Amino acid sequence: MRTVTKEEAENAKNNLLNWAKEGKISKGGQLGEWVYRKINPNNDLSNVEELIITSKTPNAQQKNWKTPNEFPNCPASINENGLLEYVQGLVKGSVFSKNKYGESIVDSAEINSATNELFVLTNGSGIKPYALAKVYIEGNNFIHESMGSFFDLNGAQKQFNLALGREWDGDDSIDDFS
C-alpha cells in the first residue's frame, strides 16, 4: 500500500468491489498499481481508441494487430457466405497469415454461428507461438482482430473454445496466470 489521493482511493474501492462481483481472479491474481486507476466495470470500450490498419490483402483490415499481414485464404470478394467460404480454405496446416516476421499456421478454424464470427487458432514462432484471431465482416472488409497470443497450446485451445461458446473442461495452463 501507499499514500493515495482521494480519487485513487475511490478508484481502488470501486475496482475491488467490481473484482469481487466478478467472482474470478484476474490475470496475475494480485493487486498492483492497476487498482488505483479508473477501470470501466462494464467493459465499455467506446472511449478507447482501437488500432485498425489496412492489411496487405484486398478487402481486409486488422484490428489490434500492429504488423500489416497478408491473409492468403481470405476471399477476394465479400458476400453473405463470405465467412463460410473463408473457413473452408483454412484447413489445418495451411497459412492463415504472413508478414515480415513469419507465418501463422492454422491449427483450428470454426465459425461461432451464434455471433457469426470466425475464430482461427494458429501456431507460429516466437515466445508466445500460439495466437487466436476473430474474423468478421464489416462493410466491405473482412476484419481480422487479434484476440491474444499464448505460451502453450492448451491455453490457446481454452480461449478458442470459450470464444465458440463452449465449456472448457481441460487443464489450466501458464496462460491462465500470465
Structural commentary:
- The chain has about 180 residues and is an alpha+beta fold.
- It has 2 domains: about 1-50, no CATH class; about 50-175.
- About 20% of the residues lie in helices and about 30% in strands.
- The chain has 3 helices and 7 strands, in the order αββαβββββα.
- The radius of gyration is 19 Å and the shape is elongated.
- Residues about 45-50 have low confidence and may be disordered.
Topology:
Elements: H1 6-22, E1 52-54, E2 60-63, H2 82-89, E3 95-99, E4 102-112, E5 117-123, E6 130-138, E7 141-150, H3 153-163
Parallel strand pairs: 2-7
Antiparallel strand pairs: 1-2, 3-4, 4-5, 5-6, 6-7
Rg on CA atoms, Å: 19 Å
Strand sequence of the main sheet, in spatial order? 1-2-7-6-5-4-3
Kindly state the percentage of residues in helix. Answer: 10-25%
Q: Which regions have little confidence, pLDDT < 50, spanning 5+ residues?
A: 43-49
User: What is the number of strand segments?
Assistant: 7
Distance between the termini: 23 Å
Number of helices: 3
- Overall structural domain count: 2
Largest beta-sheet characterization: 7 strands, mixed
Structural class: alpha+beta
Shape: elongated
N to C succession of SSEs: HEEHEEEEEH
Look at the structure and give the mean pLDDT: 85
As a percent range, the share of strand residues is 25-35%
